[in-house]
Amino acid sequence: MRIQPGPGYNFISSSSGFTLDASEPFPASDASSRFYQQFQCKVESETVGETTKFYLKTRKGVVNYTWSNFPYYPAPDNPPGYQPYQMFEKQARITDWAVYQNGKRTAGTATDGEEFEWMAGNGKIELPAGTSGAYVLVLMSLIDWYDEDGLHVDRRLIDAHMPFVSVVSSADTTAMTTLTTNQGDSQINGGINYWQIDFVNAVFNLNFDPPFPDRIGYTVKKIAQLDWNDTTNQWDLTQYEYGPMNIRVHATMGPPYSDQGAAPDPPTYDGLRANGFDNVSNYAWFEGTWAIPSYTLNPSNWWYHLVNF
Q1: How far is residue 61 CA from its own chain's centroid?
Q2: Residues 169-196: pLDDT tens digits?
Q3: What is the mean pLDDT of residues 69-74?
C-alpha cells in the first residue's frame, strides 16, 4: 500500500514493513519560492563553446524609506513665514535595477508566477569578465531630494528621492565613487534674522531670511557583494541584506543666525533656487549622479512601485 501524507513524502506499506520516503520534502516546483528571500541575489553561468559568462539575478523586494520635501520652499503665506520641513515614512516595491553598465541588462519574459519575482521579469545582468581582485556591488541608495518644481526634470535620476538599486563594478571608478560615497544627513541653514535700529526715529526693524539647503543627504546600503575567485574562476557571492529593507535620510537644521542690516529681497532661497541650488556643499557629487559614464540610469517609473501613500 502506498500513501502520500504530503507533497514530497511517500509512505509505503508492504509485507516487509513500513517505509517513509522523504527524499524530496520540497518538490522542485515549490522549493525556489520557499527559500528565496526579498532582494536575494544569485549568480548563474552560461557556457557557449569555450566561453563562460556569468549573470546576476536579484529578487524583487519591499523597502521602507524616508521621504521629505527637502529642499522645501519657504512659502511666505505659511506662518511663521516659511513652509516647515516635513518627513514621512514610505514603503515601495522595487521591481528592477535602476543603474547598471550599458547593455548588460537582459529583460526576462515572465509576467506572473515564481519567475516573475526576479527583477526585470526574470531578467539578468551580465557580470564583467573576472580578474584578480575584481568585485561587484549590489546597492540600495536613497537621495534626499524632492524636485517639486522640476528644476532638473531632464535629469534621469533626479527623482531619486525614491530608493533605487544599482549594480556597480569595481573597475568603474566613477560609478563606484559616486554611488558608494555616503553623504550623511541633509543639512539646512536655519536662516538669518536681520535687525536694524534707527536711533533718531526710535525705530527697530527685524526681518527674517528663511532657511535654505546646505547639503543634500544620501544613504547607501550594500545588498550583496560578488568577489572574483581566482581558484575556482567563479564569482563568490556574499549577501548582506534581505528584504524588507530599511533606508533613511534625516535632516539637520541649524539655529537661525543674527546679523545687522536689511534682509535680502528676494530671500536667499529664491536666488539659490533660480540657480538649481548649486550652492550646496556637495553639489558636484549630486550632479555626478545624473550621468555616470558607461552606465544606464533609468527613471523611477522603470523600477519603483509605491506600496503605501
Answers
A1: 12
A2: 999 999 999 999 999 999 988 888 887 7
A3: 74
